[in-house]
Specification:
By secondary structure, the chain is α/β, with parallel strands linked by helices. It has 12 helices and 17 strands.
Length: 389
């Protein structure tokens, strides 16, 4: 099969690799119809995630057609068109019973914190991802969801990660009616977090970034205010000025370990790797939220330590909530929002690229070229399922 192949930092290519096989009775083999490049894939691409091994296939956002099922699979049949949450989970452990699917206890022998994730290094289990023609889907009875007939396939692929992650970011903010919500990051997750904040009752939504085309996009998509941090001397003071000197009720970090905005953070977190990436957005969130407010974190940070102003968080009495999104838990509500016209996830798709051109696709997304917001990769065998643009 044709698949994306990681060859080291900033080096990916499309190559022929062996087709995946059924390895467990509860596996399924899915023929990929659409796969996304996620902002967190760039952390792998840039060499910032430990134990990202040469030869790995990335991609944790994908949909596809069930080609084969293991003998114990009950809930899927050959021919089903499914969306596959980025979480790999068993559905029965202590954490899955609490719908903490991203923290499943049985699918990742490499870590005790995060569960399994497709195509996201051996720190999340070493599973190959969906930027390929075929993918092995373990725990196939509990993860994949058959795409409802009235849900557009382009909407469905964005329900595998980006949209539910943005939605959970807003949910974890415990937004009260009329709250002011500040979202740091205008990538796909930040865009969905801003849109979701309105659905949860926000009275004001402000998005912070430094890339003008992304700010313009989120302003139109989420009907929010925007701030270019390159034009601000001190982010916390600026947010306080905008909020009667109180600070925002809720701040959301939708950036994670590659945030721009601080030369010291970039030096220590990205280049010297003295901490697990740059925690600039997290600093801004803690310092910009009001006393007694809430900080929600969905931006990706690695397992080692980060330099974080925990004393400020303590003395301000803020609540901090964070996790990888438990996608499956949000799907019924997100289907409802799409059907009601409250959400149109596919509107953030700006680029549709053949899988053969995956190297160019990563370069465009990483370098923020051509006003790229979200890229869909289309494998050769899926051309009949997705119109190329």
């Amino acid at each position: 099969m044709l698949a994306m192949n990681y060859r080291g930092p900033y080096r990916v290519r499309a190559e022929q690799k062996p087709d995946p096989q059924i390895e467990h009775p509860n596996d399924a083999i899915v023929r990929v119809s659409r796969a996304c490049i996620c902002g967190s894939d760039l952390h792998l691409y840039h060499g910032l995630v430990p134990d990202t091994r040469v030869g790995m296939i990335f991609g944790h956002e994908f949909t596809g057609i069930v080609e084969e099922v293991g003998p114990s699979v009950q809930n899927l049949k050959v021919g089903d068109h499914v969306l596959v949450p980025f979480n790999i989970f068993c559905g029965s452990c202590f954490f899955c019973q609490k719908e903490l699917y991203s923290n499943c206890h049985n699918v990742n022998p490499e870590a005790t914190a995060v569960g399994g994730i497709y195509g996201y290094s051996h720190t999340t289990g070493g599973y190959d991802g969906g930027q390929a023609e075929y993918v092995r889907v373990p725990m196939a009875d509990v993860g994949p969801t058959v795409i409802p007939k009235d849900i557009h396939p382009d909407d469905a692929v964005l329900l595998t990660d980006a949209c539910p992650t943005g939605y959970q970011a807003a949910e974890m903010g415990d937004i009260a009616q009329g709250d002011t919500v500040v979202v740091f990051g205008a990538g796909p997750v930040g865009i969905f977090a801003a849109k979701s904040a309105w659905l949860m009752g926000a009275g004001r939504v402000i998005v912070v970034d430094h890339v003008e085309y992304r700010l313009e996009f989120v302003k139109n998509f989420a009907q929010c205010e925007v701030v270019n941090f390159r034009e601000v001397d001190d982010m916390a003071i600026h947010i306080k000025k905008m909020t009667d000197w109180l600070g925002a009720d809720v701040c959301i970090d939708a950036v994670g370990c590659e945030a721009a905005g601080s030369a010291i953070q970039r030096l220590t977190g990205r280049y010297l790797k003295w901490q697990a990436g740059t925690s600039t957005a997290l600093h801004w969130a803690i310092n910009s939220v009001r006393k007694g407010g809430t900080v929600s974190i969905v931006g990706v940070y690695g397992p080692p330590f980060n330099i974080v102003p925990i004393g400020n968080a303590l003395n301000k009495g803020i609540t901090m909530r964070m996790n990888q999104a438990s996608v499956k838990r949000h799907l019924p509500r997100l289907f409802e929002h799409i059907r009601a016209g409250n959400l149109e996830p596919r509107k953030i798709i700006t680029h549709r690229v053949p899988l053969e051109e995956v190297s160019d696709a990563y370069h465009i997304f990483s370098s923020k070229l051509d006003n790229c917001i979200k890229t869909i990769l289309v494998p050769p065998r899926a051309r009949s399922l997705a119109t190329m643009h």
